[in-house]
Amino acid sequence: MNAYIAAPIALLCLILATLMGMWIRRRLPNHHLDGDAKDVIKLAIAIIGTLSALALGLLISSAKVTYENANTELKTSVARVVLLDRTMAKYGAETQAARHDLRKLIEARLTYAWDPDASEAAERSAPSLEPVEDALRGLVPSTDTERNLQTRALAISWEIAEAYWVQTEAVGGGLPRPFLMVLVFWLAVLFGTFGLLAPTNATVFIILLTCAVSVSAAIYLIVDMDHPYIGFIHVSDAPLRAALVEMGKP
Predict the structure, then answer these.
(1) CA distance 97 to 145
(2) Transmembrane region positions (predicted)?
(3) N vs C: which end of the chain shows fewer Cβ within 10 Å?
(4) Considering the entire predicted model, what is its pTM?
């Protein structure tokens, strides 16, 4: 789900719930909101408030871990890509085609990973690391040095591929929509109760509106950071661009 859609929808739900609570308050008989009734409502709503707070905290923590893992994977993979390119350069001119394929792979990742409009089919049709690995396996080393370089290059390429696919699977699913819908429902009930119990005046409404905006901002952060390569908060592509400058050198 897009963070620019999820957060406004959540904010709208919270505002409507608050207004609904205020509307119901004016129409309920007084004894429905006397001291004992308010105590029961507060105890009941405390359960939903606790659940909502726990869910928000866990989701923010999970989104932060997803973002940090993506950032770490990118920096680690970039270092390995440059090392792989330098290893192939040391092997000799036989690896020139493989180095070219490796460069195309990095350029493709720059094109698709940070493009929110890139389709899944387009990403899957982008160059992969397999041609580079095939080229490395097809080398026929004639010396121990070349054999060591071939083995080392293959090991690095496997590490790059493994890190990439592990991270792809980790961020591919995104935040489950039913979970987010349940969370917004809990928050709407919470804010509806605020409107039900609070006096109807401008100060109270402004405070509740500020709280609703804050909670919606938290939902925005969760959804945005759960997609670490796109959105307002995203992993920088600077390491990949720096790698392109280093690659291809003799």
Answers:
(1) 20
(2) 40-60, 179-198, 204-223
(3) C
(4) 0.76
